[in-house]
Amino acid sequence: xxxxGEQTNRLLxxxxxxxxxxxxxxxxxxxxxxIALASEAHFIRSFRRTFGETPHRYLQRRRVExxxxxxxxxxxxxxxxxxxxxxTSFATFSxxxxxxVGESPSSYRTQGPPPAVPTCFEKAWSRPSSFGQxxxxxxx
Amino acid sequence: MYxxxxxxxxxxxxxxxxxxxxxxxxxLEVDTDADLGFMRWLTVRVPGDPGRKILLERPGPPSMxxxxxxxxxxxxxxxxxxxxxGLATDDxxxxxxxxxxxxxxxxxxxxxxxxxIDFGIRDPFGNKLRIGQLHEG
Lengths: 140, 137
Description:
The complex is a heterodimer.
Chain A: H1 4-21, H2 29-35, H3 40-51, H4 55-73, H5 78-84, H6 90-101, H7 105-109, H8 119-126, H9 133-139
Helix pairs in contact in A: 2-3, 6-9
Chain B: E1 7-11, H1 15-25, E2 29-35, E3 40-45, E4 53-57, H2 66-77, E5 84-88, H3 92-101, E6 105-113, E7 116-122, E8 128-134
Parallel strand pairs in B: 1-4, 5-8
Antiparallel strand pairs in B: 2-3, 3-4, 6-7, 7-8
């Protein structure tokens, strides 16, 4: 039997899994809040308390992680990858990618194909853990 | 020195619910379901493969204090407890369709990888499972 806190965690995890699956779609807070059986404001607060960041920021890093993978594993152009992962502005994609990863998408691509591991591990372990710090670290 | 891995375990928060999921939905079978007095020893296995069992263990006293069990439950339901299971199938797409039809939570759609095709699911408690149709060797 799960405690109320565990049940809440599990619902939030279900919502986070939905973000992971639908990362290329616009962030749908009302739908995610329904999964979590919460109001939109309460969902955002609870998500942040449980996972340490807002749903929006979680999604951005997920999109960048997927872009990192696509750049290395496929031959799709950088602008195609931008659209594939849900960015609608190439300028925003390039800026966000550089901010998080510390280098441009084109430069990152030169690392070549990644080794094949199960997708959930790839998603969990290659999602950038910083947000915006990479460039500053690289500059020091 | 060793001949094989014969037993591994994941934490579950309710063993009856775990049984319903791992046997009823996933299609594994019960290997042992025994009340040992101090614990319920509940293992499942892939039908036809008696050599490898998974213990569905409930965290709690006396194995661990209530407060530690609460921490485990907290991590588990956040998807951060670390336990996970990999199952091999000879038809990932069909297995995916079957499990989806049974209402299993899909976390990753079937994806072609260098080692085969696999997809991800979660159990009711937050443990992740990978089901893969893997290349031989």
